[in-house]
Structure formats: structure tokens, C-alpha cells
Amino acid sequence: MRPRLQNRTALGALFTVLAMLGFASMDAISKWLVAGYPIGQMMWIRYAVFCVFAWIVVRPHGGFVAALRSARPLLQIARALLAVVESATFVLAFRYLPLADTHAIAATSPLIVVALGAAFLGERVDRARWLAVFAGFVGVLLIVRPGFRVLDWPLLIPIAGAILWGSYQILVRLCARTDPPQTTLVWSAFAAFIATSFVGPWDWHWPDAASWALLAAMAVLGSLSHYALIRALDYAEASAVQPYSYTLLVWVTVLGALVFGDFPDGWTLLGAAVIVASGLYTWHHDRRQVRQAASAAKP
């Protein structure tokens, strides 16, 4: 007998919060390591562990060979390579910027997906969603504050990363039209590992014991966080757990303060609040439309 809906939604929320904590911890470790190790090496190790994780996940669903079959392999390759570039972009941002500032800007990615979905997928975007996108843009301006201070070029890195992440999610939607999630997971891991193999081993800095432990922890946290999100979406609808993904901003702010002594200024906090509010407004608007459509469909 399946648990009650309320309990399953609560479990979905819990797994989402744990996933965000895992991603925040992974990013804190990445920020620590990127000061002494090449980004390519870090990505190579991360995706090597991700390959093992993906292989374990797909075994009960027909195995690796079955999961590898894709109706659109070139699209899967492009999506996986874009994910590598996006991940490396954010790791590069951690070299120059505090965790909280980076993720405050990165929080615009759901709104970027709305705009890109309208432009490239033909998705209908109403006035409320466009207002949310505009509000998210205002939030970024509050963080960057062009014209009110010297624009530090590293602030452009997470903006590029957010655009790449939004583009990646659009490609995921395209892949989902023809391929099951297991196929996308396998291509995500193995195509990215092959791509980083052209970079990682050739710019190798041999880690000491402590760094090996941190590199392993970074890779394992990334894999477990992805798995936690999969479990969250198994327990609850994506729309139900989406607001809890914004706890990532809380975790990175706490970790940035405790580990690196980085405290975001008032403008950054205000900009982050505007971005989160616009995202939550979009979520609330979508759920209200779904409820209205369901009510209208009832006889």
C-alpha cells in the first residue's frame, strides 16, 4: 500500500532539501580545490565517479547497453558537452566569487528557461511569466549594479553559466521527447567523461591524500545529490518540490560564511530575494493554472 499523498510530498521536499545541501557542499569543496587544481582535472574525476553511479542506476532498468540506445544521439552528445562547459563555468566562477554571489545570479536559470522555451520550443508564455523573467533580470542588476560600481568581470561568469544551464535544460526537454530518463543519465555521464578525458589527464597535478579525499567527496556528493533529486521527483511532482530548490541559496550562504568568511552584502541579498520571489511567483502561477484547468475539465 502506497503512503498517503501528503507523506510522499513531504518526502519529496526532504529529498530536495538534502539534494540542495549536497550540491552546496560539492560547490564549497570545488571552490576550495580550484585554487590548486586545474578545472579539467576536477571535471574528469567528477564524471568518472558519475559514470559508476549511472551504471549502478541503469542496471535494474535493462542494463547499460539498453540505456545507451538513443533516438537522437547527436542531441544527447551536444547536451552532455554543454553540461560539461556549464559545470566548468561555475567552477571557474567559484575561483573569483563568493558562493552566495555566484548562486544568487545562477538562480535566474529557471526564468531563463521560460524565455528560451518560448523562443526555441514554441512554448506559450503569458504575461505573468514574462513579468517574472523581467523581475529576475532586475534582481541580477541589483547584484551586479552596473553604473554604480566598477563592474568586476568575474560577475559575468555566473551570468554565462546561468544562460548555459538554462540552455542545457531546454536540450533536456528535447531529449525527453524521444529518450527515457535512463538514456539521458547514461549519456550525461559517459559522453561527459569521454570529453573531459581529452583535458583532465594532460594537465594533471597529483593530489595529496587530503586533496584526494576532497576530490572523492566532491564527486560522490554530486552523484548522491542527483540521485536525491531523482528520488524527490519519484515521491512528488516537480511543481510541488520546486520551491525547496531555493534552499540552495541558504546552504551556500551558510557554507560560504563558515568556510570562507564570505558574507554577502545587502544588495546581493536583496537581488537574491527578488530572484527567488519571481521564481516562486512563477511556480504559484503555474499551479493555479493547473488547478483551474482541472476544475474546468470536471463534468
TrEMBL record:
InterPro entries cross-referenced by the UniProt entry: EamA_dom, EmrE-like
EamA domain span: 11-144, 156-278
Pfam families in the record: EamA
Membrane spanning stretches: 44-68, 80-97, 103-121, 128-147, 153-172, 184-204, 210-229, 241-260, 266-283
Keywords: Membrane, Transmembrane, Transmembrane helix
An example Gene Ontology CC term for this record: membrane
Signal peptide range: none
Source species, domain of life: Bacteria
Protein name in the entry: Permease of the drug/metabolite transporter (DMT) superfamily
